[in-house]
Amino acid sequence: MKNAAVVVLDTVRKDSFDDHFDWLPGTWFERAYSTSNWTAPAHASLFTGRYGSEVGVSAASRQFDPDRPSLPERFLDEGYTTRGLSANHNASAQNGFDRGFDEFVNPSTLKNPEWEDAMDWEAFVAETDATGKRLYLRAILECVRGDHATVPSLKAGISQKSSRDLFERPIPDSGASTVLDRLRDTRFGDREFLFVNLMEAHTPYDPPTAFNSADSSVSVTLRDTFDGVRSPEVVKRAYDDSVRYLSTIYERIFEELTEHFDYVVTLSDHGEMLGEEGLWNHTYGLYQPVTHVPLVVTETGAESQTSVPAPVSLLDVHATVAALAGVDVESHGQNLRTGVDATDRLAEYRGLISFAKQGLREAGVEDDEIERYDAPFDALVSSDGEYAIAYDDRVESDELGPDAVRRRLAAIESTLERREASGDGEALDAATRDRLEELGYI
Predict the structure, then answer these.
(1) Average pLDDT of the chain to the nearest whole number
(2) What b/e string do you get for 176-198 counting C-beta neighbours within 10 Å, with b at 16 or more?
(3) Percentage helix, strand, coil, to 5, in the chain?
(4) Buried-state track 54-71, b at ≥16 Cβ within 10 A, e below 16
């Protein structure tokens, strides 16, 4: 049995990764593609080997509730200790992504280490049927009567309830430094599966002072996605600063991981638009700056880099990680360690996230414009390396004809077991809304 770690460098573009992570040894898959433009469905693919639309994770719902065992569950079934550290609220216990983990640290605790012994408010919310004031009163009662440190629990709750970070965050980044500390303090055994999500490259771009050439936090909002940003060069530099810092801290994290894990898989769930096609952020679309992602598989002891040019998918990470540790899974993916069998893949855009639509309406955007951005479409990652985007009324492709693109997309879709999302829209409490607004989704 082999220990395996999967680290998601959230929102890191492939070209930015190439610029700053040239120190990382292992097998580099140069043409890896995500299955989506944003976190929740991409992570659903990572954990199930299926498309987000098959798992019911889409723009309409972030809830992860697959009808088959997830990757962490399969590791758990095989006697592994499963641990998760997520800095992303879209990949949190509140949305079901703690499924199959012995231990799962949510973003609020990861970014606020002083809440270590506090009640996990996100997990409590996810497990409690009550809403509104009744939910908050139950939570306060749990803070006092439960097996938690009462004062830190109440402080964490006040911050959640107020929707503002009332207490100064004691770490300089979005959680990577805390991840490093936790890894150093953890006693890993012989059967370990670890999942980590790091958010240093996600808006707001706010690296530590030594890396921050903008001398401030730079945010890209939902409206900026379509209207453009005021200072494009400042935004690009801030993003680059963030990736540069992430590389520096991840080099230390990676060194720690290789002390305990036989394999470390480093990837991104999606990239970022930095003005290409007039777009910013990753809220909309399937252009390659969003879907083309880094993917490196490192076996402990590797000191050099090898390159694989064949196109692969995030789906393949699911099957590969399972195979590395000798765990059987059902998957659309393939074990990349035994060679790449070139095959057509999808990337899915399933409309604007429900709370993004709400934010656009509140900003006065007309319904017909919202509907235009909300229309679903797919991209084709062809077995021969071509990339095409198929909208209802047109196909964008450099090499493949429209008929060929639609025919090949239809062939893939005919094999899928798509599942309706759990609902059209999600009710957001004030704290969640503020966090999503900070991340540029509203």
Answers:
(1) 89
(2) bbbbbebbeebebeebbbbbbbb
(3) 40, 15, 40
(4) bbbbbbbbbbbebeebbb
For residue 87, what is the DSSP state?
A: -
Q: Is residue 350 part of a domain?
A: no
pTM: 0.88
Please, are residues 8 and 198 in contact by the beta-carbon 8 Å criterion? yes
As a whole number of angstroms, the distance between CA 322 and CA 344 comes to 22
**Distance of alpha carbon 52 from alpha carbon 44, whole angstroms:** 6
User: Which amino acid, residue 24?
Assistant: L
> How far from 123 is each of 98, 103, 128, 192, 199, CA to CA, in Å?
9, 12, 9, 23, 20
Query: What whole-number percentage of the chain has pLDDT above 70?
Result: 84
Beta bridge partners of 18: none
Secondary structure of residue 52 in the 3-state scheme: helix
Question: Which H or E run contains 71?
Answer: helix 71-77
Instruction: Please report whether residue 291 resides in a domain.
Output: yes
Residue 197 is part of a domain; what is its CATH number? 3.40.720.10
Per-residue pLDDT at 399: 93
Tokens of 395: 């196909």
| Count of structural domains, the chain | 1
Range of the domain at 240: 4-112+169-342
Q: Alpha helix locations (H) across 292-429?
A: 314-324, 354-362, 367-374, 402-413
Least confident stretch, 60-64, 181-185, 232-236:
60-64
